[in-house]
Amino acid sequence: MTYSIGQVAKKLGLTTHTLRYYDKEGLLPSVHKSSSGLRVFTEKDLEWLIIIECLKGCGMSLKDIKHYIDMCMQGDETILERLEMFKKQKEHLVLQMQQLKEYMEKIDYKIAYYTEAAKRGSIDAVQYNKCLMKEKERIFGQTIKNLTEDDDN
Amino acid sequence: MTYSIGQVAKKLGLTTHTLRYYDKEGLLPSVHKSSSGLRVFTEKDLEWLIIIECLKGCGMSLKDIKHYIDMCMQGDETILERLEMFKKQKEHLVLQMQQLKEYMEKIDYKIAYYTEAAKRGSIDAVQYNKCLMKEKERIFGQTIKNLTEDDDN
DNA sequence: CTTAATCTTAAAGTAAACTTTAAGTTATAA
DNA sequence: TTATAACTTAAAGTTTACTTTAAGATTAAG
């Protein structure tokens, strides 16, 4: 089973322009051309693209992704470096997930805050909900305290 | 307790340039100026900046963040719109967290893959680890199947 | 056979979120 | 008092990851 550039674009939610751009940038070294010059994508190429998307989604730049692809092309001598790269990415991802959890706490607080404001009819009245105020202290107080601990004054 | 622009920059890991830029863009309407024209930041302003960072970290553009700030300045008539905004952000955040989990699966697979390659001394030899191959099928097979279901062919 | 898709190169354009430069003025801390 | 930090406006520059345009040539699908 093989795919045209248009089919792949559709599958992955990219444009054909973007795929050719990736190809030009050296991110798709495994994509072959048919005798008539058309790009032919295999399942393997889809896997590559899925990994590219994964690394991109983790915040890696195309330049660094290209470095990874280059290592893959180089062969077995880069196995350890590739392993290290993914270990570092994992650490990064763990931090990102932690970060998102903290954002979630703040957003949940804001939802509770504005729900209360809607119920009471005004922002000013929210302060009378002691429970919410305690929650606010917990979330922002802690964050600000962390900041204060971080600096050197 | 108040803070100078430099102290705030240090606390939040921004530059004074960035803070003035935010101010110019209307993201810091609550920051006052001293009689001599210096920006004076309060705890309240730190909270604003923490929320800005939160929304930015969730992927919201400065333009949309400004829209939120503008709503806050408008008063109680925007309470419901603000509530909706945070509810939408929460949904978005849930998807992001789900996404990161899927990335984590792929990265964990790659770590296992390269660990095995390192142990066996070559990429080619990894295929003999049936367990890993099954894992690969589970992770990529599923992702590709999802893609295939998504399109209209 | 015709239409839609693909190919090429090469260059210019875009958007976001800053960053830098310039160049002079004023304020605060040690 | 002196060095460091803050202030101003305004404009230009940077980076990333595309997107768009042009313009013709070729190919595949119905």
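Chain B touches chain A through 51 residues (CB under 8 Å).
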